[in-house]
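To whoever is on call:

I kicked off a structure prediction for a single chain this morning and the downstream step that reads the tokens threw a length-mismatch warning. I double-checked the sequence; it's 137 residues and nothing unusual in it as far as I can see. Pasting both halves so you can look.
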Amino acid sequence: MQKIKKLTVCLLCICIILLNVLAYFRWSYGALEGDFRYKTDRWMHQDWVEYYPPLVLTEGMEFPLLNHSKFTDFTELEAYVQKHALSGYIVDRWLARMRLTYIYAGVNLVLLFHIVLLLMLLLRSRNVLRSRGGNRR
């Protein structure tokens, strides 16, 4: 029984490592072009642009791209956002991305919970065997 628990813990650890490796390779970043950085979400096959306002030290604002257009200044980006925000395209893409991110995070947390639970069961079963004077492996 203890071997099955150990094998289960090992398999869950491998699943978590694979999930986190996949998450590491989720984004493909392009070079920073002025105030813009283009990136691709490999999970969703969706292109995004990050806008970094001048003199601001925060993270950039992200917008999904409908086509592979490049922006040269903020006015072009603003016109693009106004045009596609009314159609709901930007919100739909953002929500789809967030749903996938939440699913990934939820699966990761469930796997971590199972590992902690199985480790507690392993420790408990070892303590029970020792207290009964059973085999020590």
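Update from on-call: the warning came from a stale cache, not from the record. Cleared it. Sanity check on the structure: The mean pLDDT is 81.
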